[in-house]
Amino acid sequence: MNRDQILSALRERILAFATSRVSRDHAEDLTQDTMAVLHEKYPLVSELTELVPLAFQVLRYKMLDAHRKALRHGEYNQASVEGLPLADTGDDPVTQLDQKQRVDRLLSAIAQLGERCRELFKWKLEGKSFPEIQTVMSQSSINTIYTWDLRCRKQLLALMGGSWD
Predict the structure, then answer these.
(1) Centroid of chain to Cα 46
(2) What does pTM read for this prediction?
């Protein structure tokens, strides 16, 4: 019996042993890995009495390695995705109502402000800087814009009831 015939018969025994321990697909992979190691690292071993124990030792090492890898990756205690509830990305109804009420209060308060304050807030919300607002409002001093901003914010806060919340 030559080495190829021995390895062919040995492959069937390795596959049967591995299948008794793990799933068929995984056993096929382990058997293939074991045979690759025998071909690459032990080409000079050709006696049946040496090849059988060597093959099964390599297989056991491969199985232990696969087990450790599965433990590291957490494959043994994974929960099914179908069984988990979907996360609600929206706010709860109480938070939504609270936010809507704050926005309504803010819009009502802004409607009560004078034209200059409304324009100032509009430009700030558009992302304009104070020097840009100074130019748009045709003011010679930027301190005037700062003062108007402070007064408008105080007035808005008072119209909202003294609190932003």
Answers:
(1) 51
(2) 0.45
CATH of the domain at 161: 1.10.10
Output the pLDDT for position 140: 93
**Containing structural domain, residue 133:** 110-165
The dihedrals phi and psi of 20, each to the nearest 5 degrees, come to -70, -15
pLDDT tens profile 3-46? 778 888 889 999 999 999 888 888 999 999 999 998 899 888 87
Identify whether 133 is part of a domain.
yes
Cβ atoms of 15 and 63 within 8 Å: the answer is no
Residues 115 and 159 grouped into a single domain: yes
56 Cβ neighbours under 8 A, 6+ residues apart: 14, 17
55 close to 14: Cβ distance less than 8 angstroms: yes
Residues in the chain: 165
Q: How far apart are CA 151 and CA 31, in angstroms?
A: 80
**What is the separation of C-alpha 22 from the centre of its chain, rounded to a whole number of angstroms?**
31
Does residue 101 sit within a domain? no
Tokens of 131: 């020097």
**Structure-derived torsion over alpha carbons of residues 99, 104, 107, 113, reported in degrees to the nearest 10:** -120
Q: What's the CA gap between 151 and 141, in Å, rounded?
A: 16
